[in-house]
Structures are given as C-alpha cells and as structure tokens.
Amino acid sequence: MKASGDDWKLRKDKNEIQVFTKKREASNIYKYKVKTKVQASIQKVYEQVIDFNENLQYMELVDSLAFLKHRKDKRYINHMRFDMPWPVTNREMVMDMHVEIKKDRIVLVSDDLPDYQKKSKKYVQIEDFHEEWTIKENKVTDKTQIVIVGWVNPGGNIPTWIVNLFSVRTPFRFISGIVEEIKKDNL
C-alpha cells in the first residue's frame, strides 16, 4: 500500500499508527514516515514530544541523554549515546532540534551536529540524521495529527538491511510511547 499516491510503502499499521518507508535518493537506507492522531491539544502533544527525560524510555537503544543547550520553544540540543547490540560499536550523536510554533501547527526539525563537541574514540559518531515532526490540529475530528518524516544512518559497518529494519521498529516504538503518555495524562 502506498501513502498519498507517492512511493511510500506502508510497513506497519497498528494501534492507529502507520509507518511507511521509502529509499532515500542518496543511499539504500530507508526514510520513514509515521502518521497518527491523538485526542489532545497541539500544545499537549508538543509538551510530551519535548519531555526528553520521560521519553528516554521509548528511545530504542538510547542509554544516555545529556542536555547541552535548551532555549524553550526555540531550540533543543541534546547529546545521545546508543548502546548497540554486540558486536556493533556503540554510537553517539548530538541532535539539534529547532521549533517553529505557528497558529495551526508546530513543526520540529532535527538534524545531527557532528562537530558540536569533541568526538569520543569509544563511539561511532552518527553524522546523517534528519527528522521533521508536524503537529497539527484537525478541527473536524477534534484530534491532533502527528506526522514524522526522517532517517538515520548510524554509520560504520552495519548492513543496510539491518538499519532498514530499525527504520520501522524504532519510530513506531517511540511514537507509541508518546501517544501512551498523552493518553495517561488525559485520564
């Protein structure tokens, strides 16, 4: 099944969350697109997305998170370390998230910042990450729509097919956790 008449392929459709993938133009690594709706305000969804401490439990393979620079509702720079399964070398990344708050939507755009701090010799630096979140109210259904489009290339010598497996599982797990937290708050 394709998404919106383009070349996205539906890979998972569970609990009102859909995950699509397609190959990136520059590599064989998949881009992912996640779509869901939740009964909550745009502001409530946004606050949950930027609650990095609470969301850490839903970030697959992330074993530590350090806040480097936060400017509320503007920009969030975080350092993440990933505990990879043996024999893969652990990874790290500095993520730079820019926030744009508009009248009817909030857009979060994240990229890696490979030269932000000194690189560790113990970790492989992730230098090819991009993610865009669009959080938009649907006045007809009274739900907030979340659409995430992104990719991550973990670098190093991980076979592409393994990386592509995570392009469905990881964003699904993360958005499922966010939705679960929002629903808990609504009780």
Output the keywords.
187 residues, alpha+beta, Alpha-D-Glucose-1,6-Bisphosphate, Chain A, domain 4, globular
Structure report:
The chain has a single domain (9-186), classed as START domain (Alpha-D-Glucose-1,6-Bisphosphate, Chain A, domain 4, 2-Layer Sandwich), CATH 3.30.530. The chain is 21% helix and 44% strand. It has helices at residues 42-49, 52-55, 160-186, and strands at 9-14, 17-23, 30-38, 62-71, 75-82, 91-101, 105-112, 124-125, 128-138, 143-153. Strands 1, 2, 3, 4, 5, 6, 7, 8, 9 and 10 form a 10-stranded mixed sheet that branches. Strand 5 and strand 6 form a beta hairpin. Helix 1 crosses helix 3 (160-186). The longest helix is centred in the last third of the chain and has 27 residues, at 160-186. The radius of gyration is 16 Å and the shape is globular.
Helix content: 10-25%
- CATH homology group: START domain
CATH architecture: 2-Layer Sandwich
Sketch the major β-sheet.
10 strands, mixed
Show unreliable segments.
none
Structure summary, number of beta strands? 10
- Give the termini distance in whole angstroms: 35 Å
Q: Would you give the CATH topology?
A: Alpha-D-Glucose-1,6-Bisphosphate, Chain A, domain 4
What spatial form do the alpha-carbon principal axes imply?
globular
Mean pLDDT: 89
Could you tell me the strand content as a percent range? 35-45%
Number of helices: 3
- Just give the CATH class: Alpha Beta
Query: In terms of structural class, how would the helical and strand content be classed?
Result: alpha+beta
Domain count: 1
Radius of gyration: 16 Å
- The helix/strand order is EEEHHEEEEEEEH
